[in-house]
Amino acid sequence: MIEFNPGKELDEAKEKAEWRLNAFRQYQQELLANPEFHEYMKQFRNGDAAEFAKRYAHDKVRWMEWGPNYEKWQENEDLAWVNDAFERLEEIQQKKLFDLQCQWRAEKIELPGVEICDDFMFWEYHILNCPFLDPITLEEVELYMQYLRSSNFEFKQGFLDNWQDYKAIKKADQTGGGNRNFPDWYDFHNGRTGKSVYLLLPDVRGGKEDFYMQLWRKNMHEEVKRKQEEIRNDPNAEKRPHMDYHSKGFMKWFVTTYEDKETQQKFADFGGERDWGEFDDALEGNLQLLGKQARPYPVEGWFDFREAIQRTADKLRISKIADALPAAFEQYQMQAESGLGFAENDPEYWKDLRDKKYDFILRGRELNNEPRNLDF
Q1: Side-chain-side CA neighbours of residue 138 (13 Å)
Q2: What is the band of 279 on the pLDDT scale with cuts at 50, 70, 90?
Q3: SS (H, E, C) 58-79
Q4: Which of 62, 50, 52 is nearest to 24 (CA)?
Q5: What is the C-alpha radius of gyration for the chain, rounded to an integer number of angstroms?
Q6: Are 98 and 170 in contact (CB under 8 A)?
Q7: How far apart are CA 84 and CA 325, in angstroms?
Q8: I need a surface site. Which of 23, 52, 161, 369 has the fewest CB within 10 A?
Q9: Tens digit of pLDDT for each residue in 211-231?
Q10: CB count in 10 Å sphere of residue 354
Q11: Roughly what angle, to the nearest 10 degrees, separates helices 305-338 and 138-148?
């Protein structure tokens, strides 16, 4: 964890500010002391040497401070697109894993190490290290490249959507909607490979697990109800409610009640109790992306300028990802062949979630007077 040190940050800010001021004065004085500069300025009607020197010194400070990092920034910019493309390779494996999940749930196949449905959710978050998936091939990359160039390319799923969310994805396919969209990559892949047939397979294993999970939930609710009753009947139990700091209207009430008039006005000037979900920095990000290009980038025409800029920026992003995909695939091959595996985020966290679901199913088996195992 990065330690927050406001004193150190303040010292560094002061040091930078002093350097900029001293450098500005130095660059300005050096230019004004150059007789050739003054001679040059005589040829212009608006040849105010002092004003020019001020502007020039200001610009020089910027490039003297940031110039040495420009090449590094360019390298980082290129690397960012390779990293983005590398994440797209994961989507290839996600589709392969989902097809296997459909077959496993229908009890058509067995997979090493897969015991319950939630194992697929675990491997979603560790997809490149999934032991029973075949490595990504060049043919699969070429198919993804076709999808990338298609009109239905999807930059990302919804914030709460998962690649292995079997029930929601299958419902979206059957109803054309539901609580989420059917992944565009899955739809494109099925259209080219005919593997939509896997969606027609029945969820045999999932139905069995749901039966035992319902028994566990019923028992859990009864336990919670019993404990709540004990608390209500206990005169020494804590009965005060929890304060919801983020509840709507709380902050306005608190400031109005406890702060002075000046603070209340500052609060109002700030925007009061803002709904941060209403603020979208997509436009700024799109403009920054387009502004970094070495040449003018034509903006596509559309009824709304924001949508026009969004479409133009997305077109550029697709081009950048497509250009970086071969390098990302080469990186994947080198890493896969090394046998060292791929970096993972919080594997123990996802394993813990999976193990809890495993225990819930076994508890359901016990409640149904069956052995505490998965032989069903």
Answers
A1: 3
A2: very low
A3: HHHHHHHHHHHHHHHHHHHHHH
A4: 62
A5: 30
A6: no
A7: 9
A8: 369
A9: 999 999 999 999 999 988 888
A10: 18
A11: 170
